[in-house]
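Hi U.,

Before I forget, here's the chain from the pilot set. I'm dumping it here mostly so it's searchable later in email.
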Amino acid sequence: MVHAAYVGKELRRDARTPVAQTEQSQATPATLWLVGSDALKGQRLFSVVFIAPHTSNAPLPPGVDRWPGPGEAVLSPGLLKAGAAEGIAGRYGKLSGTIGQEGLDDPGEWLAYVRPAKGMKAEAPIEAVVGFGPKAGLPAEGLAPGTGRDNDKPEWMFQGLVVGLLLVPSLVLLFTALRAGAHGRDRRGALVDALGGLRRDRALIAVGEAVRPVMWGAFASIPFIAVAAFVDVRVPFVGYMTSSADVRQHGWPVLLTPGAVIVTALALAVISDQLSTRAGGTRPVNASSSRRQRHLAFLCAPAILLASRGPELAGDSSLYRAWISWIGLALVVLTLPAGVAVLVARLGGSLERTGRQRGWAGALIAGRRISRYPAATARLVTGVTVALIVFMQALAWQAMIGTYHAKMEEILSAVDRNVAEIGPRGTVSPREAAAYLESIPEGNEPVVLAPPRTAGDGPITISGGCVALESLRLPCSPTPARVDVALDRRLQQLLQWNTEGGTYLKVVRADHAELARQTLPSANTLAVVKADGGVPAFAALKEASYRAYPRGAQVRFPGEEWLADGIPDRDQGRWIQLFGVLGMGILMLAIGLSGKAEFLRQGRALAPLTVLTGGYRVFRSSAAWAIVAPLALAALAGCVVAAWTARPVARPGMAYYVPGGLMATAVIVVLAVSVVMGLWAARIAGQQARNWRA
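Structure:
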């Protein structure tokens, strides 16, 4: 579905990209075209395209079925909904209709086509276009509307998130489910072997056992796929709207996915059964499993080295860095639990000897068990280690994508947002500037800031009416006044972001006609403040700019243009948070399932000990050594390895630091989970022991 979305968006982008008029196409019907931009409060920029018919039968962009009248606009449904609170429907003129989905990147894209009330002329920067898309000629990429090509991350990066934060945890859960309660299956397999059964017989039994839950799971996914194929679905938390048309366009691969999952799950069930312990007699033994764990543990160190240092071999190539990093991470996920299990098994031998020497029954039992059954420990700690790796990867990706925006937010957190800067787009006339000043809502007062003629030499001139000047704690006298220190915070921010040099402030009282004249030089800054010190009416100021100026104006607080560049990264970071939470949830389910299976297995084995020990306390001490200790070690080792393998996610030259507080919190959470699981294991073992004695 990710691939379908990327392909569909690219096709629609190509179809709406204009074809510029050339000398050979002078006689062809043409449309006047100019791409601008706008933004909702705290949101990313979107395209506002000014259009007008240049000739009769002028072509319309895809998604627009009829020409809007002069002073009318056609908006996308997503923009109308998102900007309702700011009155977006009337910002660009009278609403003439909505843009169809065939003219949008995705159903939720923000886009506006505006036909100016005063018309347009075929003069730079306005272009004449003769059509749209490859069928009309050679598309001019510089005239394309929309910001997706600039803001969207590459497809492989998004798919990498899906693989790392969803697919890997899902595979861990699948393998855990396949081995849950495997004690009985191993014994049954040993019996089939003893009776002369073939591999085919065991495969048929494994398929027969797994087919019902696998089929139920696969069929349960079909309603979700069907909904996505016929309804545009808004992804929770992220807010992205999926395109049902794209899903239908790639219908066969999407519909075949449940079938592929069925085949994969059943194949893994057979492979898991074939690789399980084979019996030498009528009971299974553990030698082959122990050897397999030792082999995987031997590969753990090279896998960690590949994941953490291998991407450096790719240099600045982001694609190859990502592939090497993901391959290394997959190997770490496969081998790290075995490494922890083999280490625990070695420590188990020492624990067994200590328990024998000091008469600690729980330590003796746990030490013997964990030293003889490393595969059980590997199953127990797999979910924990993978969860920590997924957590650190999500953190690293979030840091990489959101670093710029987070830094700009930190820098701009001190900026006073109670002042609005107005930047008219293009060339404006004195009459248009005066019309805009007259249309400013009541209570909002304009001032104009002019830098010194020579940088660092002479005064910075600020002009305005008495109400505006007094609001900024400046004198309002008939003659220009000198001010050496700006006392108002809003004025301090204006000076900081809009002027260079200047030795003092020159305060000039001016009426609207004079302010309109001073607005015209591009070096000057028109600003609006509230007389009472509150927040200016940004939405009303934007709407007024589109009525007064041919191309509207940028209306923003000081420094906002620097923050806008990081907003797409902030929005895309929500995908990482969503996938990270889902992946952690899947892994928590795997941990619980694995833990319960191991508790049941150990409880059956330990039940007869009640006759030898005369009580149930041995179960608590045994669970502490066999459950809590391995999980605690997995938490410590997993945090270190996860933090180390997350380093390559950062771009070349970017330093990445894992917050110590988050690492400590992750370890504490896992330790708390291990204690709870240890108590749960002791309780299950005690219940089984009581049932055994009964």
